[in-house]
Amino acid sequence: MDLAPAPNGLWNRWNLGLPWGNCSGPECRVRDNLLKCGACRAISYCSVAHQVADRPRHKSSCKILKNAREELAKEEAALRAAPGDMWMPANPFETVRGHFWGISETRPYMRARHGVTDGLLNIRTGEAAEECLDHHLEMLQLCRGDNMGVRSRVPGLYLRLGRDQEAYDFVKWWATIGSSSDYDWGDMDNPFLNLHDEDVFETVEPFVKRLSDVSMLACLTNLKIRLLLDLQMLEQTSKQRGNENASYDTKMEWVREHAICDVLYKRRDIVERSGWSDIIGDLDDQVGKLIECVKERNKHYWSTLRTPERWATPMTTFYSPESPQEAHLAFGHTWYAWAECPAALETIKIRARV
Question: Full-prediction pTM beyond 0.90?
Answer without folding.
Answer: yes
